[in-house]
Amino acid sequence: MEVHHVTEGAETFTCNAFLAVGEETTLVDAGAWDGIVDEIRTHTDEVDAVVITHQHGDHVAQLEAVVDAFDPDVYAYDDHPTRTHELEDGDTVTIGDESFDVVYTPGHADDHVSFVSDSSLFSGDVAVHDDGAFEYGSFGRTDMAGQSRERLIESLEELLERMPNGGRASSERSGSPGVEHMYSGHGGVFHGDVRDVVETGLEQAEKREPKYPDE
Question: I want to staple 33 with a disulfide (CB 3.0 to 4.6 A). Which of 14, 46, 97, 157 is the partner?
Fold first, then answer.
């Protein structure tokens, strides 16, 4: 699957937004960078769909601009003026050339969903590879109103169960290499053992310590 990080060059605060080009060219999150439409057009003239992990401003501020430019279907868990399809836990969506399971993963946000296929994970903010708190295996912040560390821990556990070769700390692997590509809402793109990254993030979250010193 051909995936482009289309907010990588942003000079303002935004989430990572990813464009998966393929049979169903799909944008995962719209970000908050006003240059995103122009950046998308350097890769494609058509966007078939936008899927939203959650509706914090850094993930959806440019959603209406993207819709105005490309008229895509819009998939989201919670209502939004541009939404054309409601997402629910257990649904499947096509992103690029792959079929992804929708996993409801609240804690960082009540409407948070993640998307997992046989090879890739779009984790939004529930799990990230690296951020300002941890260099390998982290989790979304839960210190603001409406957020819950306990619920996020449950979501990470559920996400691990729903990944191929599911279950925490799976020791026996089948012939499948499992999920090898992680595209999270912040931090860097990761290629490798994604299960280990998510398990490490869960271990960090389970310490119940403040993620940032000012929490």
Answer: 14
Residue 184 domain-assigned?
yes
Contact 52, 27 (CB under 8 A): no
**Best CA proximity match to 181, nearest among 92, 136, 119:** 119
DSSP class of 179: -
pLDDT at 174: 46
Domain encompassing residue 200: 2-206
**DSSP state at residue 88:** -
Q: Does 211 fall in a domain?
A: no
Q: What span, in angstroms and rounded, lies between the C-alpha atoms of 71 and 89?
A: 25
SS3 149: helix
Please count the structural domains in the chain: 1
Q: Walk along the chain (215 residues) and give the pLDDT tens digit of each residue.
A: 999 999 999 999 999 999 999 999 999 999 999 999 999 999 999 999 999 999 999 999 999 999 999 999 999 999 999 999 999 999 999 999 999 999 999 999 999 999 999 999 999 999 999 998 999 999 999 999 999 999 999 999 999 999 997 654 443 444 456 899 999 999 999 999 999 999 999 999 999 999 887 65
CATH of residue 153: 3.60.15.10
Pick from 47, 62, 54: which is nearest to 96 by CA? 47
Please list, in sequence order, all residues whose beta carbon lies within 8 angstroms of the beta carbon of residue 156, skipping any fewer than 6 positions away.
105, 126, 127, 139, 198, 201, 202, 205
Q: Where are the beta strands (DSSP E) in 82-131?
A: 85-86, 92-95, 98-104, 113-116, 120-124, 127-128
